[in-house]
């Protein structure tokens, strides 16, 4: 695993993990090799009338991440992420750094399906 | 001010006309200072009670629409053949696109052999930033026959949040849209509490259950208030018990009282006059505040 | 072609459904009632019809043949609604977001896309006394309202008068209901909200070039100048329903006002007579 995306409204590892995926404000992409972070604005998805999850999946996939850690992921976003080969981890941690530790220590389970119902 | 300490209270109703806007305006007065957001963009009425002074107007674009450049059109009929929405009209050899029928799919744009069709963003309405006697207000107006109020609702909410941060006001009160469709979802996700204002009718119960299911789906805590409860006390009991079993709190009851309309006529909220119904609304407000 | 009358209002809760139902109940001859409020169809809660037939409303959506798809992305590029995207090496379809425009099917260079029907709604037809009810109901999880409304209209018989109960507001579902009707009856009340929303609705109806009249519900003191507005705009007020708590009580129990309160039944009979005199069938060509 090289790059991991987290949903957040902040700019660093101390920021909170946003439980929403499609309408999250930013994606924080953490590079395990370089130990660097990159912030991607999710504005385009948030302003979408519909299909925000799919749009967000496209953004995350194009950033070249291997995994996504977020609160909840709906079925459309999950399908798109799976097609792009991005592993999804659901996590109820408050902060990104806690979620990152949980992922590194192997205590997060890779999701095998969407964990919330879809909406339109 | 940090975004996470700002509370967002949404007032919604399963169907229209339940008194949601009158309750919202009263809450705005009782709060003293709050940022107000009118998310009922299809029939925006909150401004009729709060008399806003408009400070800024911004156009709102959503989706795209196809427009044929007459000087470049060769009349080949391809656009009409490919349109699935019956939006291309031909009159005496001239082709044009009916903006009401156009779905904004762009198929005609792509297939026009001489590239004579433009595809600009569609102007769907405007949103405004105003001042009221109860604090700043963000509101909007969707154009006639326009679509896509979900995105406009998101815009109104985002602007309201920005204003709250900037002016350090820790409470946003939103007047939500009716129904359970896209605009409602856009207004509901991520709020601190949704207060559902309903009426004691058969359709009121039916629509309430759908709205509460939606709130549960978005993990939004919900409270229910029955307006005009005394019109049908048995149905009020049924609605409250259905609300409790759906996991919602009961925020109180408001009686049927013409003084609500009298207040409306003077462009005031019901609580700006002394009346029994004003006391009811005050109790609902206190109960609602305690849940935030 | 028999007459088609749409019942509309600028906002919800003005009594549009009450007017539609009671007008149908006192039409004096067999009539069709089309419930076009497909997100929240409520008419049958009051009519409790004998069910006659149902059908599905479908739309063509793409299906991808994985053996032929090269993942080139042309489909995702033309799609404006994120109904199809190409991520990884293949295109994937989200039928619930598809608008059925056929763009992806047309641009696919390898012929990997075919189109199959996808259910977006349901039509139920029922009978209650003189009323033939045609109800449209949107599938949960679908947001394509206008095609379901069009499907309701397609089920209307040409030779029987029809009353169309429109969704509230002035957005595209309302336009889909009103298009090609012969007359629009707008329901409002003498409150600032009612007048404001009536103005928006009148603007919409005028833009569509349709003749219209007004029903004033919960009529009492007209302190907002509703009747003056109607006069200035040449909008005939065809019925004023008094602000009577008894009406609210009957509606709250799911009853028909015309049956429960005979004096109001007479008012609705008069309204249908006025409409029959006033409205001429145009077959959608004013």
What's this model, at a glance?
The complex is a heterotrimer of chains A (120), B (292) and C (286). Chain B has 292 residues and is an alpha/beta fold. Helices cover 36% and strands 28% of the residues of chain B.
Describe the structure.
- The complex is a heterotrimer of chains A (120), B (292) and C (286).
- Chain A has 120 residues and is an alpha/beta fold.
- Chain A has a single domain (3-104), classed as 2-Layer Sandwich (Nucleotidyltransferase, domain 5).
- Chain A has 4 helices and 5 strands, in the order βββααβαβα.
- Chain A has helices at residues 43-46, 52-62, 75-83, 96-104; strands at 3-8, 26-31, 36-41, 67-70, 87-90.
- In chain A, strands 3-2-1-4-5 form a 5-stranded mixed beta sheet, sandwiched between helices.
- In chain A, β2 and β3 (36-41) form a beta hairpin.
- In chain A, α2 runs parallel beside α3 (75-83).
- The N and C termini of chain A lie far apart (32 Å).
- Chain B folds into 2 domains: 3-61 and 126-291, P-loop containing nucleotide triphosphate hydrolases (Rossmann fold, 3-Layer(aba) Sandwich); 66-119, Alpha-Beta Plaits.
- In chain B, 55% of the residues are buried.
- Chain B has 10 helices and 13 strands.
- In chain B, the strands form 3 sheets. In chain B, strands 3-8-9-2-10-1-11-12-13 form a 9-stranded mixed beta sheet, sandwiched between helices. In chain B, strands 4-7 form a two-stranded antiparallel sheet.
- With 292 residues, chain B is α/β, with parallel strands linked by helices.
- Chain C is α/β, with parallel strands linked by helices.
- In chain C, the strands form 2 sheets. In chain C, strands 3-6-7-2-8-1-9-10-11 form a 9-stranded mixed beta sheet, sandwiched between helices. In chain C, strands 4-5 form a two-stranded antiparallel sheet.
- Helix content of chain C is 33%, strand content 28%.
- Chain C has helices at residues 16-25, 43-47, 74-78, 103-107, 145-154, 172-178, 192-207, 226-232, 245-252, 257-260, 262-278; strands at 4-8, 31-35, 50-64, 84-87, 90-93, 113-128, 131-138, 162-165, 183-188, 212-219, 237-242.
- Chain C has 2 domains: 4-57 and 127-278, P-loop containing nucleotide triphosphate hydrolases (Rossmann fold), CATH 3.40.50; 60-119, Alpha-Beta Plaits, CATH 3.30.70.20.
- Chains in contact: A-B, A-C, B-C.
- Chains B and C meet through α4, α7 and α9 of B and α4, α6, α7 and α9 of C.
């Amino acid at each position: 695993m090289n790059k991991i995306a987290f949903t957040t409204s902040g700019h660093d590892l101390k920021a909170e993990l946003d439980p929403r995926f499609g309408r999250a404000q930013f994606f924080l992409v953490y590079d395990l090799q370089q130990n660097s972070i990159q912030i991607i604005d999710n504005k385009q998805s948030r302003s979408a009338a519909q299909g925000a999850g799919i749009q967000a999946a496209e953004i995350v996939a194009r950033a070249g991440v291997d995994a996504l850690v977020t609160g909840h992921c709906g079925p459309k976003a999950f399908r798109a992420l799976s097609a792009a080969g991005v592993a999804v981890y659901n996590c109820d941690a408050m902060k990104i750094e806690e979620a990152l530790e949980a992922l590194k220590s192997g205590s997060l389970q890779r999701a095998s399906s969407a964990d919330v119902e879809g909406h339109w | 001010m940090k975004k996470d300490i700002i509370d967002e209270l949404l007032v919604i109703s399963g169907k229209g006309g339940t008194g949601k806007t009158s309750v919202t305006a009263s809450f705005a007065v009782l709060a003293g200072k709050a940022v107000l957001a009118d998310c009922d963009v299809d029939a925006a009425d909150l401004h009729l009670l709060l008399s806003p002074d408009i400070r800024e107007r911004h156009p709102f674009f959503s989706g795209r629409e196809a427009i044929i450049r007459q000087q470049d059109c060769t009349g080949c009929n391809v656009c009409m053949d490919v349109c699935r929405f019956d939006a291309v009209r031909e009159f005496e050899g001239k082709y044009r696109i009916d903006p009401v029928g156009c779905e904004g799919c762009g198929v005609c744009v792509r297939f026009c052999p001489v590239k004579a069709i433009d595809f600009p963003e569609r102007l769907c309405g405007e949103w405004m930033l105003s001042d009221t006697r109860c604090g700043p207000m963000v509101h909007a107006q969707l154009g006639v026959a326009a679509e896509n109020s979900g995105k406009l609702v998101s815009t109104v909410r985002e602007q309201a949040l920005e204003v709250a941060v900037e002016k350090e006001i820790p409470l946003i009160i939103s007047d939500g849209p009716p129904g359970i469709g896209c605009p409602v979802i856009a207004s509901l996700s991520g709020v601190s509490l949704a207060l559902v204002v309903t009426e004691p009718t058969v359709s009121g119960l039916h629509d309430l259950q759908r709205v509460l299911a939606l709130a549960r789906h978005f993990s939004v805590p919900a409270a229910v208030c029955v307006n005009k409860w005394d019109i049908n006390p048995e149905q009020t009991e049924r609605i409250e018990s259905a609300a409790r079993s759906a996991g919602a709190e009961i925020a109180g009851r408001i009686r049927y009282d013409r003084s609500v309309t009298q207040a409306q006529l003077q462009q005031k909220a019901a609580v700006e006059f002394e009346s029994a119904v004003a006391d009811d609304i005050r109790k609902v407000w206190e109960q609602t505040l305690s849940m935030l | 072609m028999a007459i088609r009358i749409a019942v509309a209002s600028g906002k919800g809760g003005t009594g549009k459904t009450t007017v539609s139902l009671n007008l149908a109940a006192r039409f004096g001859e067999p009539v069709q009632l089309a419930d076009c409020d497909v997100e929240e169809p409520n008419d049958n809660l009051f009519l409790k019809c004998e069910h006659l037939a149902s059908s599905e409303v479908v739309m063509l959506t793409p299906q991808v043949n994985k053996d032929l798809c090269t993942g080139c992305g042309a489909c995702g590029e033309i799609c404006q609604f994120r109904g199809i995207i190409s991520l990884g090496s293949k295109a994937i379809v989200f039928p619930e977001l598809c608008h059925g425009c056929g763009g992806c099917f047309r641009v696919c260079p390898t012929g990997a896309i075919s189109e199959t029907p996808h259910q977006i709604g349901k039509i139920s037809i029922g009978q209650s006394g003189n009323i033939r009810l045609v109800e449209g109901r949107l599938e949960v999880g679908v947001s394509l309202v206008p095609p379901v409304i069009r499907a309701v209209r397609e089920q209307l018989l040409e030779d029987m008068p029809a009353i169309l109960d429109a969704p509230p507001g002035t957005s595209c579902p309302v336009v889909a209901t009103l298009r090609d009707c012969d007359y629009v009856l707008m329901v409002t009340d003498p409150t600032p909200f009612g007048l404001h929303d009536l103005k928006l609705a009148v603007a919409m109806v005028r833009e569509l070039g349709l003749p219209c009249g007004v029903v004033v519900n919960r009529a009492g003191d007209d302190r907002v100048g509703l009747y003056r507005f109607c006069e200035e705009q040449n909008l005939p007020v065809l019925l004023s329903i008094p602000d009577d708590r008894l009406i609210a009580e009957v509606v709250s129990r799911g009853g028909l006002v015309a049956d429960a309160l005979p004096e109001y039944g007479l008012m609705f009979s008069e309204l249908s007579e006025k409409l029959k005199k006033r409205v001429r069938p145009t077959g959608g060509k004013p």
